[in-house]
Design a protein that fits this description.
The protein has 502 residues and is of the alpha/beta class. It has 3 domains: 4-106; 122-199 and 296-460, Rossmann fold (3-Layer(aba) Sandwich), CATH 3.40.50.300; 203-291, no CATH class. The protein has helices at residues 60-74, 108-115, 140-145, 158-171, 207-213, 221-239, 248-267, 271-288, 318-340, 357-360, 368-383, 399-404, 416-424, 431-434, 474-501, and strands spanning 4-9, 16-21, 29-34, 37-50, 75-86, 102-105, 122-128, 135-139, 148-151, 175-180, 193-196, 307-312, 350-354, 385-391, 407-410, 444-448, 456-460. The strands form 2 sheets. An 11-stranded mixed sheet has the order 8-7-17-16-15-9-14-13-10-12-11. The chain has a 6-stranded antiparallel beta barrel with strand order 1-2-5-4-3-6. Strand 3 and strand 4 (37-50) form a beta hairpin. The radius of gyration is 29 Å and the shape is globular. The structure holds adenosine-5'-triphosphate and magnesium ion. Magnesium ion is lined by residues 158-159, 469.
Length: 502
């Protein structure tokens, strides 16, 4: 028998009701029984007040007496309830609950049934905040065919969520690839990890990818033009057979220089553009020549089923990372399309995780990753290619892409602009849920979308083992650095003493 905790008061509609309750916690599910039938609701916020001690109360002495008399009897608790679904129909209710409708706590069994779709593969990522014994399951089918945004202030548990989700996907035999910006996943204890170095075969690079790798700006039109021409003539030569002893960058520089020589004969190429290009290529060569390898296979052949594929991007510049991620996204999407159209391609769906998404899917800069991520956001569902975008700066994300992320896991966010931005891009995240974001603790999340059957307030379980994102132990690092400095000083003194003795 479920416990009645209160009754609805005032006006309600089919989405919201208010109730006077004896006890309540944010995130608790309740059942309202009225002529509509049984309607599931979620307590999104709770307020407490006093009939005698209002906001304008100003007499401290009387206040003391009221407290002594019987404070408990004069206080009340009100809950805001989001109506989620008519339990018999599985849809939102047609009529609002009348005032006085009893509000009962939903039993664990009802919630367990609602959160477990027995026909589909799911992974358990944590438990309900309000009903701790009820596991929260994520429907994998909708993770691989829809997209997900994981949004939260820094240090609130995004990477932990990615680790829990991706281990779960690997365990059930799926394919997930994490573009590891900080190297935190490669250095983690993820059991099923498969680390991929960011090698790319120049044969498969597009002209725009080469331009991005070499950090040639979109508005540097002369450089872009010369580069395109050089790549075109280089491609002709490459098709005749590559000398695998020559570095791609060397061949490219030679092709550009050849353009320069011809320009002196009157072809009118911009000399400055050529010099600038050669400098940029040299710059790239000094730092990243190792990325481009003639023996690297097409990137899609690196991906393994049943593993957490992690592309190591640690220490690379953002423009190089942009080129690598976009190269993967483009080739995965194209290989999936080819496969679906009966040609040779990638025979399994792939979930792509983009960390620091506000850098690569920014609402101001046009990156290559943004272009291919937008394509996947729009077309990926048909081809089993999906995105998980992760960001601590939601308002820096491209609004078009964010609005395609119909699944959301949102954790603590205090910044009002970020909250507003998320709300404006989500049909299923209402203001009452957004208002709870500042109050969430580390690891607590609001989850909406088809990956869960009903909106949930969950505690994501902690990933067991090392994950690179853990807060650094500052005290330990300071004292280690101090010991090291003292050690160096001692050695220095000993050396100078020896010098004096000689
Ligand atoms: N669900 C959880 N339960 C317990 N502890 C957690 C949970 N999630 C994260 N933490 C802890 O909080 C800290 C930060 O977590 P995490 O690195 O996942 O945050 P983040 O949002 O990815 O941060 P950043 O913005 O820096 O990438 C870590 O020490 C982690 O162990
Ligand atoms: Mg992180």
């Amino acid at each position: 028998m479920e416990q009645v905790i209160g009754y609805t008061i005032g006006e309600a509609n089919v989405l919201y009701a208010h109730a006077l309750v004896s006890k309540a916690r944010m995130g608790t599910y309740v059942i309202l029984s009225y002529d509509e039938g049984e309607v599931l609701g979620l307590i999104t916020s709770v307020v407490r007040g006093s009939r005698l001690i209002g906001d304008d109360f100003s007499d401290l002495e009387t206040l003391g007496k009221i407290r002594e008399f019987d404070n408990a009897k004069t206080t009340y608790m009100k809950a805001n309830i989001r109506l989620i679904m008519d339990l018999s129909k599985g849809t939102t209710p047609d009529t609002p609950p009348p005032p006085g409708t009893p509000v009962k706590l939903a039993g664990d069994d009802v919630l367990r049934n609602l959160l477990q779709d027995s026909n589909d593969a799911t992974i358990t990522i944590g438990n309900l905040i309000g009903n701790e014994d009820v596991p929260v399951n994520i429907n994998i089918r909708y993770l691989a065919s829809r997209h997900l945004a994981i949004l939260a202030a820094t240090g609130s548990g995004k990477s932990n969520t990615v680790a829990v989700l991706s281990s779960g996907i690997a365990e059930i035999g799926g394919c997930i690839v994490i573009y590891d910006y900080h190297g935190e996943y490669i250095n983690s204890d993820i059991r099923e990890k498969h680390v991929i170095q960011p090698f790319i075969n120049p044969l498969y690079l597009t002209s725009s990818e080469i331009a991005e790798l070499m950090n040639i700006r979109e508005n540097a039109t002369n450089q872009q033009r010369v580069l395109r021409k050089a790549i075109k003539s280089l491609r002709g030569n490459i098709e005749k057979g590559v000398d695998s002893n020559s570095e791609f960058t060397q061949l490219l520089s030679d092709a550009i220089e050849a353009k320069g020589e011809r320009s002196e004969k009157g072809y009118g190429e911009d000399k400055k553009a050529i010099t600038d290009l050669l400098n940029k290529i040299e710059d790239f060569e000094d730092r990243y020549a190792y990325i481009l390898r003639w023996d690297a296979p097409p990137v899609t052949s690196n991906l393994m089923l049943g593993r957490v594929n992690i592309v190591n991007l640690e220490g690379l510049d953002d423009n190089v990372i942009d080129a690598v991620i976009s190269h993967y996204l483009k080739n995965i999407l194209e290989a999936r399309k080819a496969y679906k159209h009966g040609r040779q391609g990638l025979p399994f769906p792939v979930i792509n995780v983009i960390e620091e998404a506000h850098i690569f899917l920014s609402n101001t800069d046009n990156t290559l990753t943004k272009y291919w991520a937008s394509r996947i956001a729009k077309e990926g569902r048909k081809f089993g290619t999906s995105l998980i975008i992760v960001s601590q700066r939601p308002k820096g994300l491209d609004p078009g892409i964010l609005s395609q992320m119909t699944n959301k896991i949102v954790m603590k966010i205090v910044e009002p602009e970020d909250q507003k931005y998320i709300m404006s891009s989500s049909d299923n995240l209402s203001e009452d849920l957004i208002n709870q974001l500042p109050a969430l603790a580390v690891g607590q999340a609001i989850i909406v979308g088809m990956i869960v059957r009903i909106p949930v307030l969950a505690k994501i379980r902690k990933f067991e083992g090392v994950l690179g994102g853990a807060d650094p132990d500052v005290m330990a690092e300071w004292s280690k650095a101090k010991e090291k400095a003292e050690e160096n000083e001692r050695i220095g003194r000993e050396i100078s003493n020896m010098g004096e003795q000689l």
